Amino acid sequence: MFTKKNIAILVVVILLIGTMALLSNRRSSDTAEDNGATTDGVTTIRVAAFPDQDSGFEAILDDFHAEHPHIKVELDINDFDNHHQALLTQIAAGSNVPDVANIEIQFVGDFVNRGGFVNLLEEPYNAGEFEDDIIPYKWAQGTNEATGELIAMPLDVAPGTIFYRRDRFEELGVDVEDLNTLEDWIEVGLEFTEGEDDRWLFPDAAIIYEMVRRSGEEQFFDNDGNPIVTSDKFVRAFELAKQIRDLGLDGQIGEWSNEWYATFEEGTALAHASGAWLGGHIQNWMAPETAGKWGVTNLPDDMYVNWGGSFLAIPEDAQNKEAAWEFIEYVTTNVDVQINQFEAANIFPALVDAFDHEVFEESSDFYSGQNVRQFWLDSAKKVPAVNTNRYDTIAQDAVGAALTEVLEEDKDIMEALEEAETLIKRRMR
User: Fold this and answer.
1) Is the sign of the CA dihedral 337, 33, 312, 55 positive or negative?
2) 379: which of 97, 211, 222, 353 is 20 to 30 A away, CA to CA?
3) CATH tag for 43-158+308-356 (out of 3.20.20.70, 3.40.190.10, 1.20.1250.20, 3.40.50.300)
4) Where exactly does CATH 3.40.190.10 map onto the chain?
5) What does 233-288 look like in DSSP terms, one character per residue?
6) pLDDT in tens, the chain (429 residues)
């Protein structure tokens, strides 16, 4: 027999059950909407990317949506470091993962070996049919060497180059073609900075280290996975950076700072070294008013390097894998799409067939009539197959800290490198 108290409790329980069911249905509805399952049959996919890539994606989205009306792409742009850290956290937790993850070259070794992404060689992706169409070393970098699985589809490469102030060279009466070695650049840097407090060869001496350490087939590790940061290459990179600092040829100006931007606008730095992608920033927003004052040339000492580039991957916990692959296939295997991204943001194609496009025959007014695209194409073809390692980011942080100690605290170079190597080995364990 029900008492008033029992009836009251029963009513409360029924109300609680009803509320929970309502909330559950609402969560299910929200989840379905987040996962792209909408009533009009359009699947929304989230593409997580970092700055530098967003303008390239935006340049092709209208055409993608027109050709794939059943898919809507939402770009989720985060700053470079936070983007990759967020990906690591999301993949580990298996929640809030994007449908497409944009991964930069320095992180790809870690992501490829860490797990948490689909094998793009399997059904329904079948990416293997495009292997011969992609620059070989980029394909290898996106592949797990132990399992042979393709984890990350190559999107772009970044041939290393020096952007130099053509007007400053003309003032000096120097032909950039006569500069063949790093020592040649140091000599002209001394001439450019003589008697001037606000002129530098490069904004930061660390750029010399970056040039040298990126050269060759091995980066921080050999092909057996052993750290090589105490090798002759790294010693030379540190020595040259220290020489630049001691001669007063750098402004000790870090990248992506207001002071750094000013060196482009004002021509206080004779040159900048980076990947081809930097040219898009200079021209589009950093110093567009300097058109005609720039030229590009190769890194000295016949160094042909890859300085950036990225990949696209699909997390195992992504909700819309097939739609995600449609987007990845569209932007990585379509010549016109790759060229559109290149024209919009200097995102250099990883697709070999794109190299025959007529865009590479065009000169650039911004570079005073120089055909910089053909220059970058020639450079990209000469870059050696560069290895990657899952501990690249750890090594980069350790060696970068060592370089700071050498440049700012006058620490012994070999001592600093040996301590960095010890730290890397410890972190690897």
Assistant:
1) positive
2) 222
3) 3.40.190.10
4) 43-158+308-356, 160-305+365-428
5) HHHHHHHHHHHHHHTT-B----TTSHHHHHHHHH--BSEEEEETHHHHHIIIIISG
6) 444 444 444 444 444 444 444 433 433 334 333 444 554 899 999 999 998 788 899 999 999 999 999 999 999 999 988 999 999 999 999 999 999 999 999 999 999 998 899 999 999 999 999 999 999 999 999 999 899 999 999 999 999 999 999 999 999 999 999 999 999 999 999 999 999 999 999 999 999 999 999 999 999 999 999 999 999 999 999 999 999 999 999 999 999 999 999 999 999 999 999 999 999 999 999 999 999 999 999 999 999 999 999 999 999 999 999 999 999 999 999 999 999 999 999 999 999 999 999 999 999 999 999 999 999 999 999 999 999 999 999 999 999 999 999 999 999 999 999 999 999 999 998
The single-letter DSSP state of residue 351 is B
pTM to 2 decimals?
0.86
Tokens, residue 317: 């916990």
- CB of 406 closer than 8 Å to CB of 416: yes
C-alpha distances out from residue 276 to 97, 149, 318, Å: 30, 29, 32
Count of CB atoms within 10 A of residue 7's CB? 10
For residues 399 and 397, give the distance between their C-alpha atoms in angstroms, rounded to a whole number.
Answer: 6
- Residue that the structure tokens 């303008």 belong to: 55
Nearest by Cα to 237 from 166, 300, 190, 163: 300
Query: In the numeric block, which tokens belong to residue 330?
Result: 């569209």
Task: Say which residues have a Cβ less than 8 Å from residue 34's Cβ, sequence separation at least 6.
Answer: 44, 319
Q: How far is CA 84 from CA 145, 154, 269, in A?
A: 22, 17, 31
Does domain 160-305+365-428 fall under CATH 3.90.230.10? My reply is: no
Give me the residue label for tokens 């996106």. Answer: 142
Which residue(s) pair with 44 in the sheet?
72
